[in-house]
Amino acid sequence: MTHRRGLVHVVLLAVLLAMPGIAAMAATASPEPEVTVDPRVELVSIVFYLSGGPAYTQPSQYRPYRERVDRWFSQLRDHPAVRYARKLRNHDGISFDAPMSLAIRVSPDPDMRLLVPLDPGPQSFDPRWRPSTVRKFLKRLRAFRHDSNFDAFFRENRPLYDEVVDRLAKTVHTELDLGWFPRFFGSGAHRQGRFHVVAGMLLGGCNYGPSATIDGQLERYAILGVWRTDAGGRPAFQADDMSTLVHEFGHTYSNPVVERWLPKLRPFLAELNRRHLEAFQRQGYGDADTVGYESMVRAV
Fold this sequence. Notes:
The protein is α/β, with parallel strands linked by helices.
């Protein structure tokens, strides 16, 4: 461990110990999470899957859904939305969690209205997005949704989604204690919110934890990639997957803390990122800020 890397960990530990929940873990009832397959997540995932790149073409034991996507959408690999997604990935680093950060901020209907302003700030978009690229991508995404008849595809696959949701929900409701979060981080009103567990049908082994405040309500998401199957080839989830959900939901609590300290942390995070760039890139860490977010949530 280098001196600078050790110093980053010391600073992060100091931030962690300053969290109010460490000093007083009040007993709090566990909230009930919503478990779904989200059409917004699926639509954006499909477009980025068609665009290529490693994040949305992860290996997976679960092949039937990907085969259905290929049959339905394969003729649209040159659609303007797909071409623009490829450009965003190559030029702006829009990949891994960045597409999901946009997906949860639009309405699920075909109009796909933005549910938050395009102003900068912690409650706005992933910094890799710019107002101009959000607008351009959404315009093309709406056209893709219409041109591909995505809504018919989603309806046709509803029985499959229902099976996945049923299997995931059984594991979530028996193995996941969401009440741990307010007990650990503190039960202040600003830390409350609704929990959404989303099965990402095309995400393979990737998982994401975006959040957004919409109409004054904090919406916390844990998007879990579907990749494992049972002996019969059906989607399978295990108790071990719940540690992934804790990690992703944990981002919605720890990221705001890191954001408050980023001006002081950035010089150390930048040096840490420079020294271990290849290793961090393999994990999908696009910049030094992400290194800080991931280090903090792992410390928790």
